Amino acid sequence: MSWQNSTSRVPSDVYLQIINEPEYWLTLAVVGFALSAVTVVANSILLATIWHDPLRSLRTPPCLLIANLGLADLLVGLCVIPMVTLRDVYRSFLQMVPLPSIVGTITSCILSATLFVSSATIVAMSAACFYAIDNPIRYKTNMTKKRIYWLIIMVWIASVLICCLPVTTIPENTFMLIYMHTHISLPALLLMIIYIKGFRSLSRRRRELLQSTNASVRNHKLALERKRNMAVIVTTILMMFYISYLPRFIIFHLENFCSPCQINEDSIRFHKTDVITSRLIFFNSAINPFVYAWRMPKYRRSLVSCWKALQSKLKSTLKRELQGRYDNDN
Hints:
By secondary structure, the chain is mainly alpha-helical. It contains 10 helices and no strands.
């Protein structure tokens, strides 16, 4: 990130020097504000639904991981996207942001921390989902809320340690390598291993259960169907993860490690693509809550129940106010 210092020494904005197109930056700003609003509203509703949980069906360990992912996405919508969008607004006027450079550093740290938490949580959700499929008995015994809480705490501690690297003397390229491989490469490798083993286990258990007809096995079939539904949810989230992160990952490595590519530093098209891929990461934070509402029946039921309770409360409040005004008039 390039931010204008409050001192007289102002760092140059490379992208602003190369892409001298106000319409391009204004378009990014409009999309950024809309994306920030959707991210904040959707993840706030998700967290509020899990918190209130009127049907008492969202207190399971997987839902705690979903809540952690929603919290990280909410921080992206509240802290990161608005600052990046503000910079795009100033770029649309061909100006730099009149803020201290420390604001850019803080924004970068928050972005790094929240994206690391998102990646780690998605890996944890996938591992928990397929562990439940492969060994449901041990899953119920070992996957406790206490262990999930500790896992979430460890993930946030690791993210804070990684996001503090930019304020040290570590070179920027070194930090970007650490950033890319801890946020994308390592999660992608782990998810590939989990999915290969998980789907093999899912197929094996389905074949075994389809050959049985007793009532107990039928109950297990229903449980397996619920696990399959959860697997589809995680698969959808992972697809969005790859779509959001891989373009940025590829562009970064092309720019820094592809000597035969001979990318021109003044290439407007390449830098436009670079900027767009960096913004594409934010879509992952906006789409996740809709995936839950689309695929999780118990989340949909809890959301509808919360909405009905809110409507009832609003009607009751309005009725009391109207009754109070009527009594005062009389």
